[in-house]
Amino acid sequence: MPRKASSMSIHELRRCLEAQEQVVARLALRRRKLATQLAKLDKKILAAGGSVKSMPVAPGPQPRRRTAGKPLIDYIISVLKAAPKGMRVKKVVGAVTRAGYRSTSKDFYGIVATALREGPQFKKMSRGVYARR
């Protein structure tokens, strides 16, 4: 049974890390070789008149999409319409939430701040204060 990392010396931790890096390097090399072989097979299939389907995507966490309701930007625009002098990000977060936008994000403030900072429909009035263009 492997030991806990907290009970291992720095030397032992480095050895474990090097071993893992070697495993990753070997797997990456194997993957490159298989990709080359697959490309050759695809060319042969196409030359024979067949069609090649794209590679299946490995299963993994899929991004969650909003299934119903307006996008966040629409909520922010409607909130900022009522504030011609602009609003602080914290106030926008509260107003959007009160307007009915539901989010399960742990950092909803960060999402709203990024939307305000990068959205072309918003302008920065002063530090942390944004308004509609």
**Helix fraction?**
40-55%
* Helix-strand makeup class: mainly alpha
What's the architecture of the largest domain in CATH terms?
Orthogonal Bundle
Task: Give the total of beta strands.
Answer: 3
Name the CATH class of the largest domain: Mainly Alpha
Strand content of the residues, in percent?
Answer: 5-15%
**Multimeric status of the protein:** single chain
Distance between the termini: 61 Å
What would the average pLDDT be, to the nearest integer?
A: 86
Return the domain count.
2
- Cα shape: flat
Q: From the alpha carbons, calculate the radius of gyration and give it in angstroms.
A: 26 Å
> Major sheet: order of its strands?
1-3-2
Number of helices: 4
Low-pLDDT windows of residues: none
N-to-C order of helices and strands:
HHEHHEE
CATH topology group of the largest domain: Arc Repressor Mutant, subunit A
| Biggest beta-sheet profile | 3 strands, antiparallel
Structure in words:
By secondary structure, the protein is mainly alpha-helical. The chain folds into two domains: 8-47; 72-132, Arc Repressor Mutant, subunit A, CATH 1.10.10. The protein is 52% helix and 8% strand. The chain has four helices and three strands, in the order ααβααββ. It has a three-stranded antiparallel sheet.
